[in-house]
Amino acid sequence: MTTSISSIWIIGLSSAGKSTIAKRLADRLQTIGRASVIVDGTEVRDLFDKKLGYDPQSRRKQTDRIKKLASWISGNGVLPIVAIIHPFEDDREVCRREMPGYFEIFLDCDIKTLTARDNKNLYMPALKGEKKHVVGIDIPYEQPKNADLVIDSANSDADEILELIWTKVLPHLQEDAA
């Protein structure tokens, strides 16, 4: 018997492809009639009046906000697809412990590829010392120890990544439909 997935977390550094893959996965889920909602870390920041910064403490608060939001969504029978950097292993372990059915996909990507894809203009200013609190530069990204799926997003295109995820996730979703 497979364990049911109640939330999918697509994690990795900025420009690894999290939002793109989350959108494609939501579209694919729609084709099988599975209700889902994308919880994008960047978009969630804009939902709250109290804006959080990007320092480690603010990033931890953001993760807690998203965990609570994803739990609420899941509790209402909708599958949250979370796209978030999620840099700290202890925060990921809290999510795994407190959210039954937590499924973690790590999009691993090298800094050269991330810098080339960087439409938010984070990496070059951070590498020059002009910008602070950039995960992967002056805030270390702790490699996931217990990811359910690790994908090299530098050497796979979005279609390949979606198929890898779909193959791994689908058996855990079919149980819910029965």
What does this structure look like?
- This protein is an alpha/beta fold.
- The chain is built from seven helices and five strands, in the order βαβααβαβααβα.
- A five-stranded parallel β-sheet has the order 2-3-1-4-5, with helices on both faces.
- The radius of gyration is 16 Å and the shape is globular.
- The two termini are 13 Å apart.
- The model has no long low-confidence stretch (mean pLDDT 93).
Characterize this entry briefly.
The chain has helices at residues 18-31, 41-45, 56-75, 89-98, 111-117, 123-127, 158-177; strands at 7-11, 36-40, 79-84, 102-108, 149-152. The chain is an alpha/beta fold and 178 residues long.
- End-to-end span in angstroms? 13 Å
Shape: globular
Placed side by side, the strands forming the largest sheet appear as 2-3-1-4-5
By DSSP, the count of extended strands is: 5
Low-confidence segments, given as residue ranges, are: none
Output the helix-strand order: EHEHHEHEHHEH
In helices, the fraction of residues equals 40-55%
Q: What structural class results from the helix and strand content?
A: alpha/beta
Question: What number is the mean pLDDT?
Answer: 93
How much strand content do the residues show? Answer: 15-25%
**Major sheet:** 5 strands, parallel
What is the count of DSSP helices, taking H or I runs of 4+ residues? 7
Radius of gyration: 16 Å
